[in-house]
Amino acid sequence: MENRITQVKSSGGSAAWASVFAALYDPLLWVGETAGVREYRKDVLSRARGWTVEIGSGTGLNLPHYPDDLDELVLIEPDAAMRSRLERTLSRSGRRARLVDASAERLPFADRSVDTVVSTFVLCTVDAPDLALREIARVLRPDGQLLFIEHIRSESPTLAYWQDRLAGPWRRFARGCRCNRASAELMVSCGLELEDVRESSWHAMPPIVRPLIAGRACPTTNTGGEFDG
Ligand SMILES: C[S@@+](CC[C@H](N)C(=O)[O-])C[C@H]1O[C@@H](n2cnc3c(N)ncnc32)[C@H](O)[C@@H]1O
After folding, report:
1. How far apart are CA 88 and CA 137, in angstroms?
2. Helix or strand or coil: residue 124?
3. Per residue in 36-64, pLDDT tens?
4. Do residues 90 and 63 make contact, with C-beta atoms less than 8 angstroms apart?
């Protein structure tokens, strides 16, 4: 395995806003976390096993919820401001994990080498979710799994309309987050099969990011890729 540095595109504004957003991230999410998302994290992450790679780890809100007996935990985070907070959370947690500066669109791991990939509130933010999902399908072992919690495009035409209308300003505020992305459909079209998917609501958050899905997806095909780490 190799650590490959990949620069994330600056889709979400200036470096100054990146630092402010990273500082505000945990306080902004706090109400939503206590209103249910912390329980979803606990539930979904209890299924992590083996060699586990989390993409877009942010400030490290998932760290307390991983089982203790993972073979290895690798945390991928391309944003420097988020990564420095993640480093602090990790050292306070006493957990062993490796931080890697890379992007989900180009994962520095060999084909079929990873048991579990974790993505929580990340597929909305990556610039090329189709590439990221194909990368996930590529690196997962045939019996591997993607564990996810993502906010998604609403099935309600009215809410979807407002998600489209507000997508631009929301994206600028939330560092590249697309509130209207149909991530479940994307997973399926990129070689993953959905299993045990739970639809829910991100309580206490703005309506445009409330529709949530949480669950597990498995690779339908492992097509291999051009990059072997
Ligand atoms: C909304 S935050 C989610 C953080 C964390 N996963 C959580 O559950 O709180 C989105 C994260 O994805 C990261 N990110 C953005 N683009 C990415 C990419 N192309 N590859 C991997 N991570 C990315 C951001 O830097 C940010 O930390």
Report:
1. 30
2. coil
3. 999 999 999 999 999 999 999 999 999 99
4. yes
* pLDDT per position as a tens digit, 104-129: 999 999 999 999 999 999 999 999 99
pLDDT the model gives residue 17: 87
What's the gap in Å between 124 CA and the centre of ligand 1?
9
| Separation of CA 56 and ligand 1 centre (Å) | 3
Using the predicted structure, report yes or no on whether residue 12 has a pLDDT greater than 70: no
The tokens of 120 are what?
């929580």
Task: Check if the beta carbon of residue 144 is closer than 8 Å to that of residue 115.
Answer: yes
Which residue lies with its CA nearest to atom 27 of ligand 1? 58
Task: Give the number of the atom of ligand 1 that is nearest the alpha carbon of residue 8.
Answer: 19
| Distinct helix (H) and strand (E) counts, the chain | 6, 7
What is the full DSSP assignment across 50-68? Answer: SEEEEES-TT-TTGGGS-T
Q: How far, in Å, from the CA of 104 to the mean position of ligand 1?
A: 9
Distance of alpha carbon 70 from alpha carbon 73, whole angstroms: 7
Which of 2-6, 17-21, 23-27, 89-93 is predicted least confidently? 2-6
